[in-house]
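User: Hey, my collaborator sent me this sequence without any context and asked if I could get a structure. I don't really work with proteins. Can you help?
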Amino acid sequence: MILADKIILMRKQQGWNQEQLAEQLGVSRQAVSKWESALSIPDLDKIIKMSNIFGVPTDYLLKDEISELPKGSTAETATSYDCDDSVLVTVEDANTYMSLCEKLSKFVAFGVALCILSPVPLIILGGLSELSSFPLTEAAAGGTGVAVLLVLVAIAVAIFIVCGMQTGKWEFLEKNSITLEYGIKGIVEKKKSQYEKKHIFSIAAGVVFCITGAVPVMIGSAFTVSDIDMVYSVAILLVFIACGVFLMVRSGIVNGCYQKLLQEGEYTQSEKKARRRLETVSTVYWCIIVAVFLLWSFATMEWHRTWIIWPVAGVFYAVVEAVAKNIVLKK
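Assistant: No problem. I've predicted the 3D structure and written it out in structure-token form, which is a compact way to encode the shape of the chain:
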């Protein structure tokens, strides 16, 4: 139970409305309303005052994991919470970071989608250039397609740089151990719980988009269709994959910000230590994959086939990461 819920519960047990509690604490009714809505957290002196007014220990108010009062408990007039070498995250920090992630998630996801869509003009122009009625030559179509590809990738890179500059100050959440100020854990857990259904839907929808996008290609392979139809099928495949990845990346960023603050999932202290050592492996691996993809694609000009390297590389990376992590943890 979070602090906001505890204030509501204790106020109602006393039969007070927000105005009456505000008078007891010497604050405005709006301040009490914000506390109970988890939009802000009362100062420590107000926590102590509530401890006296309601006759409860301050630990009960400050620690989210304590949801029931011990029998015969008495009010306390002071409190403390654990501090260690980790970085302290205040309520302002947490709210700022969560708002920033929600705002930037759609831009980062759009940038990733642009990277996936970037070969589409090249593929379509390359297919159309083989038609006698098309005004561009094969060389002109290829050059135009590559130019559009580079422009789209450049836009995506610019988006990543701008977003990275805004989130750079928060990198410590991924690398360092953190301590949350009192009450923050409950607020983040509540937001994460409220977002869970949307996250599950986005991941499921993204997977469906990626799978169904291959249907036109499979149909084209099973039946005799023209080359230009196959070109369109591959373009549709990339569009569907881009849509699916957009949903998954955007949702993953938002859900990831909650996990970082709560130090859950991939952001536990042990995982953070392992990840710091695996950064080099990840960078080298994906640089090699990009180089192989470009070399293979430009050497064969069979973009409708070379895309297969990405899902294969993604699956194989999970194996590489698992093996590398196992080696790191053993050390």
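In plain terms: The CA atoms of residues 175 and 272 lie 5 Å apart. You can pass these tokens on to your collaborator as they are.
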